[in-house]
Write a structure and sequence with these properties.
single chain; mainly alpha; globular
């Protein structure tokens, strides 16, 4: 089952913009980025995505669950997105 905070960000947005979310931008910077790239249509949506990303990156188990879902269970993710999620999982596993 898709983790709730991943739903809030959007599966494709999360994996395509992983490096941005991983950098844990300050709120105003993150909102401006998401609006400029037209990922979010308004500040409230951008803030919701940032909050969900913060929750994912603050909880290693939840982050792993989200990446595992994209890599192994998602029917929405493209082959490239699944490969990217698998690569990130391998990289995170090597850090342990």
């Amino acid at each position: 089952m898709l983790p709730r905070c991943l739903q809030s960000i959007g599966l494709k947005v999360f994996i395509d913009e992983y490096e941005f979310f991983e950098s844990r931008p300050i709120r105003s910077e993150g909102i401006n980025y998401l609006l400029k790239k037209k990922i979010s249509r308004n500040e409230a949506g951008a803030a919701r995505r940032l909050g969900a990303a913060k929750k994912l990156f603050s909880n290693p188990d939840l982050l792993h669950e989200a990446l595992d879902y994209i890599a192994n269970q998602s029917k929405e993710a493209s082959k490239h997105q699944k490969e990217k999620a698998s690569g990130i999982l391998r990289r995170l596993s090597n850090r342990l």
